[in-house]
Amino acid sequence: MKSLPPMRRFHCLALATLFLFNRASAGTDYTAQPGKYAVGSLLLTWHDGVRNRDVPVKIYFPKDAGKDAAPFPLIIFSHGLGGSREGYAYLGEHWASCGYVSAHLQHLGSDSEVLRGLRPLKKMREAATVPANAINRPLDVSFALDRLTALEADPSFPLHGQVDLNRVGLAGHSFGAFTTMAVAGARYLTLGNDAPRPDPRVKAAVAMSTPNTKDNDTDAAFDAIRIPIFHLTGTKDELPGRRLKGDSDPIVGDTTAAERLRPFRHTRHAPAYLLVLEGGDHMVFSGRLGPARSTDREFQTRVLSGSTAFWDAWLKGDPAARQWLEGGGFTAALGHLGTFELNHPEK
Q: What is the residue extent of each domain of the chain?
């Protein structure tokens, strides 16, 4: 059989690429909001008897989806310093509308309670220096998975039969990204000998504004990571108040925007993705106490589209979602709003 002339080969390759891109995009509009499911929510407080510690949680879930659609993959979400289970609702609601159960944990000791009273920034910084807060957060995640496993077997649980514990994702912002990376296997010296081992139940992770620590600037710090991770940050992503003087280094780090790229750059044994929002700051991922900025909605729409495609690719095993994410669809949707990179593991 004769080979095609160079120009014919080029046209055939272009048509094949266009076919694959269109096939990946067909029926999957990652810019649409919301997804096809109505969303319900549950407020619960679980008690860990081993640590004598409460873990409040808010669970977003697809409502009235029907038995044929369930069970749905699970996403555990970890808030930033000073946050709560009520925060980041735009993420939980959207992911649930797209066919996920999204459980937002509240980490006592580094939650919204530190904002109460006078000098909240000082109290936040103090909370960030307490090793117990860093140690308890990954343990909260593993405890939540244990609790959901037990509840899933209970017919009286409102979400009985709806949660797929074989398809688990973990996401977090800032201190929550620290939590996410620790559970995924990142080595943080601040955790010392109490560092939890990677939880094998977590299959993929989304880390927003990952904080810098002194030990995360080498490949060795991320050597144990074996799951896909999607990193999100911005060119102005610095911790609010990071210039404040203090006697000790906060665990969440005095992090510059450039330092937030380190986890992506040093991940060598798992697929890694990086979204950098042009002009995006630290608060665009969590919401603001004051008025929203003009770019917040556009940025958050891209956060939703990229993260949902990532979950679809790695938790639902959807090849069309992965093709859209890696094959140019997400980059095209970003436009001038940011850049997107991917880094596959060494062969």
A: 36-343
DSSP helix/strand/coil, 43: strand
C-alpha pair distances (Å), 123 with each of 64, 138, 174, 236: 43, 22, 17, 24
Other Cβ atoms less than 10 A from the Cβ of 253: the count is 22
In this prediction the pTM is 0.86
Residue 3's region, left for phi above 0, alpha for psi from -120 to 50, else beta, is beta
Helix (H) or strand (E) holding 233: strand 229-236
Alpha helices in the chain (DSSP H): 6-25, 89-97, 120-128, 131-152, 175-184, 262-265, 296-314, 319-326, 329-334
Distances (CA, A) of 47 to 55, 70, 198, 326: 6, 27, 22, 41
- Residue among 225, 262, 253, 209 at smallest CA distance from 88: 209
From 252, 231, 240, select the one nearest 134 (Cα to Cα): 252
Three-class secondary structure of residue 88 per DSSP: coil
Cα→Cα distances 281→157, 189, 296, 337, Å: 39, 27, 10, 13
Separation between Cα atoms, residue 206 and residue 67, nearest integer Å: 28
How many alpha carbons fall within 13 Å on the CB side of residue 204? 22
Per-residue model confidence as pLDDT tens for the chain (347 residues):
344 443 333 333 333 333 333 333 334 568 767 899 999 999 999 999 999 999 999 999 999 887 778 899 999 999 998 889 999 999 999 999 999 999 999 999 988 877 776 666 666 666 767 788 889 999 999 999 999 999 999 999 999 999 999 999 999 999 999 999 999 999 887 777 656 678 999 999 999 999 877 667 788 889 999 999 999 999 999 865 444 444 344 455 578 899 999 999 999 999 999 999 999 999 999 977 778 888 999 999 999 999 999 999 999 999 999 999 999 999 999 999 999 999 988 64
- CATH for 36-343 is 3.40.50.1820
